[in-house]
Backbone:
């Protein structure tokens, strides 16, 4: 199964990806390691696209981040619509919590505090630049799941998994994969 988790910075993409991976044993890939190089430099477009192509060519994966190429190749796309104020709070809090260290999901020598103001700008402009497009793509598309805070996300995920996979035994497995979504959303609420 190929799952893409997308949304704003601080929306909970990494947390949800890790939760699903822990439950199902799927490999997780973080697009921040592809779109950024050490010391917050950007690799060339050809290099970045080649790395993304290598990731999506794998038979099973969870890829978290924002990428049109990944969305096109995913069996299920989970769009996290965490409110902007929560994303902003989480990004700022994470910068100060991690300080000058680099998280495992980033290339080496990429402390988030070094790009705090850029991160704030990304969060504030996300809906206008990308979020609205994601919602348009999701409309009427059974591969897309728009997760809002709360238990409604589990019902949406189960319904989408039935539409994508059909009513076979795999459907129950997929519902189990996504049962952690509500737990992840609940944990995220407690963090704010």
Residues:
């Amino acid at each position: 199964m190929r799952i893409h988790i997308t949304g704003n910075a601080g929306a909970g993409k990494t947390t949800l990806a890790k939760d699903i991976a822990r439950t199902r044993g799927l490999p997780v890939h973080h697009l921040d390691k592809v779109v950024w190089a050490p010391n917050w430099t950007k690799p060339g477009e050809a290099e970045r696209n080649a790395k993304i192509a290598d990731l999506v060519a794998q038979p099973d994966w969870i890829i978290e981040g924002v990428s049109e190429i990944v969305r096109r190749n995913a069996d299920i796309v989970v769009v996290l619509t965490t409110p902007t104020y929560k994303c902003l709070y989480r990004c700022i809090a994470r910068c100060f919590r991690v300080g000058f260290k680099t998280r495992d999901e980033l290339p080496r020598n990429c402390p988030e505090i070094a790009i705090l103001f850029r991160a704030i700008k990304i969060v504030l402009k996300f809906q206008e630049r990308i979020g609205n497009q994601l919602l348009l793509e999701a409309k009427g598309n059974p591969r897309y799941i728009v997760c809002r805070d709360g238990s409604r996300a589990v019902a949406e995920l189960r319904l989408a998994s039935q539409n994508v996979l059909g009513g076979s035994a795999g459907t129950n497995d997929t519902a189990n994969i996504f049962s952690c979504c509500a737990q992840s959303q609940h944990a995220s609420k407690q963090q704010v």
Notes: Residues 2-83+127-191 form a domain with the Rossmann fold fold (CATH 3.40.50).
